[in-house]
Specification:
Four Helix Bundle (Hemerythrin (Met), subunit A), 3 domains, elongated, 9 strands, Glutaredoxin, two-stranded antiparallel sheet, alpha/beta, 5-stranded mixed sheet
Length: 452
């Protein structure tokens, strides 16, 4: 009996000791083991793998100092959002879901909502994988933009080439604008939100069309190589609107969706997007100049006929005349006051040194671009011819007289380039004078193709 009591007493002592020991180790174990709030969710297509925590507090707060509402991300809902964005991109491209690379989306709980969303890539023997790091609270439009970028990036790199394709910014922004125009911020699911289908307006592109009708537009060169000042403030809104309209117009072209898909596939094979683009759209654009001319017509269509009443035919001619006739100060005699006169493009090219020419002609090209976007439609072809002539001159003149191309072609001397350019400018000036006399086609049209 005594032995039995001692055994019972020993067992009870062991239980108490073990319980105390386990309780003392609990904080350390909690620091090592993941909490039950950590979850990993696979999307319906299995392409997206979302890592994060279950939300405890589901309240939505405005972005500090702006009044913009944020959405708090939850892994399960974010997985659905990822699939929605992908479905939107595939729908715009008329493409089937044949994904190759997985996209990991990690919710960072302590991240600043203003912090840029980071997209990283990893290359493996069987292809690429993608990692998107998003803050727990985010502006819906920024999330759509990041997911759109990731989806397009995966589509462009499905062949698994070691060289990662670089998406032009206008392509990502254009598709982001398309998705937001059709689905709005409702693409992003919110915690504890009711499922509702919002009736979209009849014309989802009305807002971007109206914006472009009342704001200066950007050129293809500005969209392809945006300067830093275009990426902030009102200029950034203009860039986004132009990018969206460019993608809209490309989709509207015959076989536009198929050619955009081909463009994505060609991106890893070229050092810049321009080469892949011209290959994909070869039947329509043989050069970037052809693309620029087509883009100008697209922008004219956004404004409509009534928008052109601001700059009449006569006012457009006067602005063109002022651009190609520049004020110049004459060297005064000793003791005399300086005098101002006009010089035209022919005189600048013939008399000035080339370094001075480059600065002034680059400024003229910028002014011609602004004029082309805002002038009467009848004068647009003439403005384009002046632009092409000056661009060809600057390119050929910078290469003239140096080294050959290694194929037995003779060198082009600066004198020949100058002579050919002046000949073209004389013919354009004649067309301009005929335009002023309300008979712009009296003189024979001039070919502005580059001299070989």
């Amino acid at each position: 009996m005594t032995t039995l009591l001692r055994s019972i007493r020993f067992v009870l002592f062991a239980i108490v000791f073990y319980s105390a020991s386990l309780q003392a180790q609990t904080p350390r174990l909690n620091a090592i083991l993941p909490t039950t709030n950590d979850v990993t969710v696979h999307s319906s297509s299995q392409q997206f793998i979302v890592h994060g925590k279950r939300l405890q507090n589901r309240s939505v707060a405005p972005l500090s100092g702006t009044g913009i509402n944020l959405v708090r991300l939850e892994p399960a809902l974010l997985a659905v959002t990822c699939e929605r964005v992908k479905a939107g991109v595939l729908g715009q491209l008329d493409a089937s879901d044949q994904w190759q690379g997985k996209i990991h989306v990690t919710i960072q709980n302590a991240a600043n909502p203003n912090r840029p969303i980071d997209i990283r890539t990893e290359h493996f023997s069987n292809g690429w994988q993608y990692h998107v790091f998003v803050p727990e609270s985010v502006v819906p439009e920024r999330l759509v933009r990041a997911l759109t970028h990731a989806v397009l990036l995966e589509m462009a790199n499905r062949e698994g080439q070691p060289r990662l394709a670089e998406l032009p910014l206008w392509l990502t922004e254009g598709f982001t604008g398309l998705l937001l125009s059709h689905g709005g911020a409702e693409l992003v699911l919110r915690p504890e939100s009711r499922t509702a289908r919002r009736q979209m307006p009849g014309d989802p592109y009305r807002s971007v069309r109206e914006y472009l009708a009342h704001h200066p537009s950007l050129t293809i060169n500005q969209l392809g190589l945006p300067a830093a000042e275009l990426l902030e403030g009102e200029s950034w809104k203009t860039y986004q609107a132009c990018s969206q309209w460019l993608v809209i117009e490309l989709i509207r072209m015959p076989e536009g969706r198929a050619r955009l898909r081909l463009f994505l596939n060609l991106l890893p094979r070229n050092l810049n997007w321009q080469l892949g683009f011209l290959t994909a759209f070869n039947p329509y654009f043989n050069s970037l100049l052809d693309l620029e001319k087509w883009w100008t017509i697209c922008l004219l269509n956004t404004r409509g006929r009534d928008q052109w009443q601001g700059w009449s035919r006569q006012a457009s001619w006067e602005k063109l005349h002022a651009i190609i006739h520049l004020p110049a100060q004459e060297t005064p005699a000793r003791g005399a006051s300086p005098k101002w006169s006009e010089v035209n493009l022919r005189q600048i090219i013939e008399w000035w040194d080339f370094q001075s020419q480059k600065a002034i002609l680059s400024s003229v090209l910028q002014k011609l671009q602004i004029l082309r976007m805002n002038s009467s439609p009848e004068i647009v072809p003439l403005v384009q011819d002046y632009q092409e002539t000056l661009r060809a001159y600057l390119e050929q003149r910078s290469k003239a007289g140096y080294e050959g191309d290694g194929k037995g072609h003779p060198l082009t001397s600066p004198a020949i380039v100058i002579r050919n350019t002046i000949k073209r400018l004389n013919s354009l000036d004649a067309q301009m004078e005929a335009f002023r006399l309300n008979s712009p086609r009296k003189s024979a049209p001039v070919s502005t193709r580059r001299a070989r």
